[in-house]
Amino acid sequence: MRPSDDAAPRARISADVDTPDKIVYGLTARQVAILAVAAVLGYGIVRSVGTLLPQPVLIALLTPFAGAAIVLALGRRDGLSLDAWLMAAVRHTRSPKRLAPAATGRPAVAPAWAPAPATPCTTVPVLRLPATAISDTGVIDVGAHAVALVACTTVNIGLRTGDEQAALIGSYGRWLNSLSGPVQIVISAQRVDLSSHAHRIAATTGTIAHPALARAALDYAGFLDDLAARRDPLWRTVTVAVTAAGDKGRDTEVLRRAEHAASALSALGAQTAVLDGGRAAAVLTCATDPYTPADVTWARALPDAAITEAGD
User: Fold this and answer.
1) How far is the C-alpha of 199 from the C-alpha of 187, rounded, in Å?
2) What is the Cα–Cα distance from 123 to 141, expressed in whole angstroms?
3) pTM of the model
4) Which of 50, 55, 244, 303 reaches 20 to 30 Å from 11, CA-CA?
5) Residues 282, 294: contact at Cβ < 8 Å?
6) Could you give the CA distance from residue 143 to residue 305 in angstroms, rounded to a whole number?
């Protein structure tokens, strides 16, 4: 049990590492720019028609304009600034809408946006992922950014003392505060294939010399089969996606950030590893179908690698 005098763990962690800096009167550069443009337009309206309109009419004309500029600069919706939200709404309205073909009642024909099928009988559209290439070192090219994946395990702090919890949370907070670019932490649950594991155990019982150990192995294999039939066991994976932008040295920088993240999380007691090209491709393949078991412990060929026979 935890001692009663343990202090509750506390750590100051920034809620948004991408929060823009305040430059004047608590306003960001974007907000100042919006208000400055609105002020210039308002001044132009006053200079052009100020002598032609009565003052009450001029005030009635400028008040909605000023209110709209203030709302645009200071307003937020769904965690986004209002100008970014409006731009996203405009892009969504103008972008083409892509609908999947109906399952029943209509012929299964690939939509117009899908790539041309390799054979006339192919009707399933190909999913185009943002990633365009994966290097041997594990750098994923997504166009404007490069991404590197770090696999890590979880850390159970429930049985730690208050001081140990505070130290772990403080270390995690320091890593978050040290980030200089976007980072995504993906926690996913995947189905555990116990049946194949049970079959492997049953197949190796013939090599066990001691009869009691062989019977124990068979009992264990039966337990796994029964567990797979009655339950739906899952296991969790934690993947940290580190990004870097730029035209020069981007791959080196993203790998440096991945190594920094791996070492920082290792200090918390987690087992971490920066994924190479084969393992990164396996993780992305498994992410598209989380219910298909995928063993990422062995090297896999990259999408552009030539497959040859042994000895070639």
Assistant:
1) 29
2) 28
3) 0.54
4) 244
5) yes
6) 20
Q: Please, what is the average pLDDT of the chain?
A: 78
Q: Which residue has the tokens 């087992």?
A: 271
pLDDT one-digit tens code per residue, 249-291: 888 999 999 999 999 999 888 899 999 988 888 888 777 765 5
Which residues have CB under 8 Å from 182's CB, separation 6+? 18, 145, 243
Q: Write down the H helix ranges in the chain.
A: 29-49, 55-74, 82-94, 162-177, 194-203, 211-230, 250-266, 277-288
Tokens of 121: 């009988």
Residues 6+ apart with CB under 8 A from 16: none
CA distance 181 to 135: 21
| Nearest one of 275, 208, 210 to 238, comparing CA atoms | 275
pLDDT per position as a tens digit, 8-17: 566 666 666 5
The answer to whether 87 and 95 are in contact (CB under 8 A) is no
Structure tokens at 195: 């049946």
Distance CA 187, CA 234 (A): 12
Query: What SS3 class is residue 308?
Result: coil
